[in-house]
Queue: 2 jobs
Job 1
Amino acid sequence: MNEEQIQQRYELQDRICYSVCVGNEYQTQKAVRELTDMGTISRVSDNLTGWKYDLIWLMALMIQSLREVGVPELSLEEVRAEFTTKIFEASDADGCRMLLEEIALRLCRMNSLKEIRSYSMLVQTVLRLIDQDLSQPLTLAYFAKMLNVNSSYLSNLFSREVGMPLTEYVTAQRISYAADLLMTTAQPIKTIAKKAGISDVQYFSRLFKRRTGQTPSQYRLRPIRQPDDPDAQQEAEVAEREAR
């Protein structure tokens, strides 16, 4: 694995942790599959052992990310213990790939900061559609037509349940997603703006600065959490010992 591939792997790891933290199952699953397609980077001679080490490490990163946003420690420990056993029992690489996706989605659903089950089915559908593809024209008219509902009714219902207008929520998600891409990838700002659903890069830059207090270029220079975070490393070492 060359340097570019290693960097791509680190970017995917950060994308997975971010998606887990915001409760975005679609993006979590997508990033996990991209990562598993790259194979293992462990230097151990046995491929299965390498996969197990990778799973332990990635699980530790995701758990640490959820710990930092306030998910209860007891809940995280229960998941860690359950899946450490499953990792130990895995019999092949394909099983490890499936297990990583299971771990990531399980942790993704734990984040109380993005709990949507208390919302009506209509609002839940809108929230999931927003999560799935921010590059779409996510206007009130777009959702009203797609879901065959009255736009005024949808607007009032969304504002009442979520606590903010739909357009404001969409903008916040676009900026949050763009901020993640700025911190975890080297993609051009124009590309990131388009992925976040804002085709006019100048407007994107103004909006981003108004929301974050920094231009996209300035925001990108902020330090990011490195994959060798000592707390996550310690978690991985403990899990490795228990998996032997």
Job 2
Amino acid sequence: MNLIYPPFTAPAEDSAATHSSDQEANNAEPGFFRPNRDYALRKVITKEVQDQLQEANNAEPGFFRPNRDYALRKVITKEVQDQLQEAFAYATGFGVVFIDPDGAHIGPGSNFCEFCQKINCTERGRELCYESNRCGVNFAIESGETTIYICHANLVSISVPIIVEGEYLGAMTAGQVKTENPSLYAAKSAPSRVDWLQDPEMATLYERLPYMTAKQIEASAVAMEKIAQFVMESYQKLQLEKDLRRMESDLRLAEEELNRTRYYSLVSQVRPHFLFNVLNTISHLLVLDEIDKAQLVLKDFAQLLRYQLRQNHDLVSLEEEADYIISYLQIQGVRFEDKLTYDLDLDPACKDYQIPFFSLQTLVDNAMEHGILAHSQSGRIELVCRQESDGLFISISDTGQGMSQEKLTQLEKLINTGHGSNQHVGLRNSYLRFKSIYKDRFSMRICSKENCGTRIELRVRDEADNISSGLTIRHIDPRQVELKELLVDSY
């Protein structure tokens, strides 16, 4: 490829010294002026997607046609685009414009030099500019990073593709400046099909164009990449907000459906205010621009809803129930970051064991609401599931408020008779469902100490034996062993 460069004219400053300094830095550390890898395109486009885009463009020239349903205007408004262009152009001296997937300019751009305006006034000039823009984008996609290249008019240009969820929507481009050493960027050059400098007027306009050092150019490239990253993250935030609104709608429909199922009395233990508090938490995270954390909470929340809406859930595997509990605790960990820690220990040998749907989640929710949140200090929830020689052992413990002897007596009455406070209806429900399935093979033990915590132990034996089944409730006297010691012992 033959490049046509005008005779070098040094600017008023000591360009030779500046160029020497730039060149020494680049020679001493190859890639010295590369954009910060923490902000490279790999954050928004994987190697696989990059290869797919490139293969598609090679197989079908013009593949990057603008999909109007996903055009850049869906990601960034005209007002924001104009503000970004103006601010960047004012700060750097570059001509700036956003382009569509065809390479065409979206709007007039900012700080366009008279030389480039003259080129764009002709149909041939516009075609070459669009072709040059497409080349710059292809260079960026091939390398996976912001690209500095030489455009068709032998000027320095910068291209940052905007790719969201693997789809190329357009790019932010800047250029219309000269550099003292074009060979630094000549390896990436758009075809130079017209010698614009043959026209004396164009040659005069070209001479007026500003020179920029390598440091200025490549620092501007880093800034452009951050702007493009802001645009892409803004779009992701917008999509997340849409998903949140859709999730709210799905939640309302789910609640209506749950009201018509025979498990309403059980699932209603997941209090509606918890579900809406989760939505409020996601909204709050979005306001704080904590997008990654909001996405994690939204993912866990979707997992909760999917699990609750299972069509056939008399029995589930222990692993499925544990996955739900993990999502629940992760959400609570975000909501009460300084209040809650938790640990789950699931023995792989018992992960396929069948238990009543939602039976453990109810107990974990009780530990959270009546143990941790009711206590003035921070606390910990532990769930242990293990296969023992005679069957399945499960324990749910918390270091929360605990219960007095009087409350334990009331709890025992509620579980055995159904009469009393409805505060622990979920616990009684879990006990009765285990009991109805496993009969005498099942036993529950509750140990608690006021202001220290509560531990609930469940056993499902492989075969009924002489060991007593049913319910055992024990109050730990303050003069006796601390509950934290009890939590590591079995009976």
